[in-house]
Amino acid sequence: MAAFPVLKSGAVVQAPFARVVRYATDVVRFCGGDEQRYPLRGRAGRRWMVALSGLDDGELQALSNFYEQHGPYGVSFEFRDPLSGEMFAECVFADAGLDLKLAGAHSGECVLRIEEKVNAV
């Protein structure tokens, strides 16, 4: 399985970035006011908001090529969590497009969202 490209610095992402842990539950409300909650998935899923800047042409091209192979088709890839270092094998791009900008030498920017695929219960 392909892994998300690493920057020339060896980092996966740059600061600042955000990681969100998402739980999916359903709530059944009874006439008496009681509630019962149950999970829709076996475990929580993660989503990473990644904003990269100061990228050179090669790094932008690597991200663009990787997105062309995986993004539009929802093909899974590996992504290393920058906080824990844990590798997540079933990740996809959460957006329908990739926002790449090149303003000059070593001033490329990219914003993307990656989410972990989590199976239902």
Give a description of the structure.
- The chain is mainly beta.
- The chain has one domain.
- Helix content is 12%, strand content 42%.
- Strands 1, 4, 5, 6, 7 and 8 form a six-stranded antiparallel beta sheet that branches. A two-stranded antiparallel ribbon has the order 2-3.
- A hairpin with a 5-residue loop joins strand 7 and strand 8.
- The longest helix is centred in the middle third of the chain and has 14 residues.
Question: Any key phrases for this structure?
Answer:
single chain; 121 residues; mainly beta; 6-stranded antiparallel beta sheet; two-stranded antiparallel ribbon; 1 helix; 12% helix; elongated
Rg: 18 Å
Task: Report strand %.
Answer: 35-45%
The rough form would be described as elongated
Give the helix tally. 1
Largest sheet: 6 strands, antiparallel
Low-pLDDT runs of 5+ residues are: none
